[in-house]
Amino acid sequence: MRFVEFFKVHGNGNDFVFVDDLGGRVSSLVAPSELAVKVCHRRKGIGADGVLLLQDGDGEVQFRMRIFNSDGTEADMCGNGARCFARMLDRLGLEDPKMRFLAGVGVVEAQVDGSLVSLKMGFCPFGDGAFFGVPESGEGVPDGVVMSYLHVGVPHAVLFARSWDIGEEELKVLGRRYRHDGRFPRGANVTFLMPLGGVDGSGGFFARTYERGVEDLTLSCGTGACACAAALLRMGFGSPVRIESPGGFNVVEVEAEPHGARYVLTGPAEVSARGVFYL
After folding, report:
1. Which reaction does it catalyse (predicted)?
2. What is the DSSP letter of 174?
């Protein structure tokens, strides 16, 4: 019987199955998209938001990270996933705590420091059609909401309100609607953002993200936290910013330029299990 060895790892509850595919040892047996659908199933598989594949690099760096969502689609970037990938490279002794590896958006840098992993991304263009702080209204949307749209490797819509005092099912309905909104040609991850401890953001911010490819609310989203930080900066808030989520927290430093930004994303990443999955 064929099987795949794996590790289970998560960043703030945003969970992934990590698979060593060096030399094509796994992708020669099963297509990565098919593997992702099978192992990510919460009832019939291991259960995860996505799969992290460790593959050989391009010569400039030794290792490459590929990310497949639970629906089998491949993502160019995932902030929490990349932090988890760095955690695993350190855990397996493949890299020093300070490392570089290839992702869909290019070479990224990471630093493992105790329970925390920091990810330093290069310049990320905001992308065509980006906008910030535009008033938004509609069915189920609270008064005073403003929306931003930008890319952080993947597209994000950030809806900022003083409070999101609605239930989880209502958030899912809104998330599904905006994820497929015609204003976003490739679809979008949708983050509902609000301040904590006062409208000035002195207590940080709280975010819930409906993730494209997972097609559900997740416990945390790293690139979503980065998108929030960029949107907040454009709205007059400062940097760094602490983004709380149901699964934990990320701290984001953002350096904005006219057409994009650079980010440092820091938060916990933990290994929770290892085992084999039968194909």
Report:
1. (2S,6S)-2,6-diaminopimelate = meso-2,6-diaminopimelate
2. H
- Which CATH class, in words, describes the domain spanning 3-122+268-278? alpha beta
Rounded-to-integer distance, Cα 51 and Cα 8, Å: 9
Class of domain 125-267: alpha beta
226 part of the active site = no
Q: Which entry of 40, 78, 84, 226 is annotated as an active-site residue?
A: 78
- Tell me if residue 12 falls in helix, strand or coil: coil
Segment 99-113, tens digit of pLDDT: 999 999 999 999 999
124 is catalytic: no
Instruction: Pull the structure tokens for residue 209.
Output: 């993200």
Binding site residue list: 14, 69, 79-80, 189, 211-212, 222-223
> Can you give the residue ranges of every domain in the chain?
3-122+268-278, 125-267
Has this prediction a pTM greater than 0.70?
yes
Q: Which one of 40, 84, 124, 221 is the catalytic residue?
A: 221
Letter for the amino acid at 2? R
Asked if the domains at 3-122+268-278 and 125-267 fall in one CATH topology, the answer is yes
Question: Half-sphere exposure of 1 toward its Cβ, with a 13 Å CA cutoff?
Answer: 7
Q: Is the pLDDT of residue 198 over 80?
A: no
